Amino acid sequence: MELDFYKKFSINIDLAVEAHDLLRGQTGREISGVIVDREKYENSSVTIVKIVEEQAEQLMGKPRGNYITIEAPSLRDNNRLAQQEVAEVLAKKLSSLFNLPENANILLVGLGNWNATPDALGPKVIEHSMVTRHLFKYAPEELGEGMRSVSAIAPGVLGITGIETAEIIKGIVEKIQPELVIVVDSLAAGSVDRIATTIQIADTGINPGSGIGNQRTGINLASMGVPVIAIGIPTVVHAAVIAQVTVEHFLEQLKANPLLNQIYQNLRPDFTNQVINQVLQPFAGNLMVTPKEIDSLISSTSKIVAGGISMALHPAVNFEDFNIYLN
């Protein structure tokens, strides 16, 4: 699939690894100013995309920084070993993006709408996270070494609160003055295979609602005044992307069949876009697709993300400790 298709349908590419692969596939060469490293684990793989130059920033459509993608298809199978590995890898990679003292103050933010399941990842992660800031003040005897002060909020969305999410977070940041903000949000993927199997960690912050085409106030170092790390999992795919892939496969079958090849040759170059436009016209091209089991996928992945964050922020906590906390 070409990058021009995403631009034509105004589809934002949330995952840096997908933006890189699309751009590299279109140009047929490595992208100058982008460094890519890969790691392999038993149940998962990690791709680290580093955007280091301004030109690459413009080509990728993403700010300079580090984008870490963890892929684990076995997460959909409710594989406990894979879940533990991914949580531990997430903790390790998240820790690599900050250097905080033990007495640091961290704010967790769960973006999204808790009334819409595909958009409820952020609030669900907050629900499962180890929050300790109040204990430092009211029950310090309950805390051991290797624990940090962590507070959390799920601020809702503009349509519920009437307030820009960034404004809410900025107010809290000014009040409690954290050294780091970690935001969690649902993302849109360019492939159904990535739903609930891919986690992206980025030290560049996030733009709320960007996955469904909204242009909103960013939550990043510039707007918050403190470093912001964003963590996201794809929960939806744009319907135009699924339609495009379907049509492409159909055209490949026409082209490969000698009896039908003439039909393929007679098709106009803009055939695909016209068909997709006609199908999606009632929704103005903004139709998003999510699997019917999204409830259970959000439930399981939110615990994995919360576990990884908790292990990264609280060095004394391991995966088993986190499971005891959940229960």
UniProtKB/TrEMBL annotation:
The EC number of this protein is 3.4.24.78
* Keyword annotations: Hydrolase, Protease, Zymogen
Read off the NCBIfam families from this record.
GPR
Q: Organism source for this protein?
A: Pelotomaculum isophthalicicum JI
Q: Name one GO molecular function term.
A: metalloendopeptidase activity
Q: What does this protein do?
A: Initiates the rapid degradation of small, acid-soluble proteins during spore germination.
Enzyme class at the top of the EC tree? hydrolase
Q: Which SUPFAM superfamilies match?
A: HybD-like
Q: How is it modified after translation?
A: Autoproteolytically processed. The inactive tetrameric zymogen termed p46 autoprocesses to a smaller form termed p41, which is active only during spore germination.
Q: Which domain of life is it from?
A: Bacteria
Q: Which named protein is this? A: Germination protease
Q: Where is the signal peptide?
A: none
Q: Which family does it belong to?
A: Belongs to the peptidase A25 family.
GO biological process: any one? proteolysis
Mind telling me which InterPro entries this protein's record contains?
Pept_HybD-like_dom_sf, Peptidase_A25
Can you state which reaction this protein catalyses?
Answer: Endopeptidase action with P4 Glu or Asp, P1 preferably Glu > Asp, P1' hydrophobic and P2' Ala
Q: How does it assemble?
A: Homotetramer.
Propeptide stretches in the record: 1-14
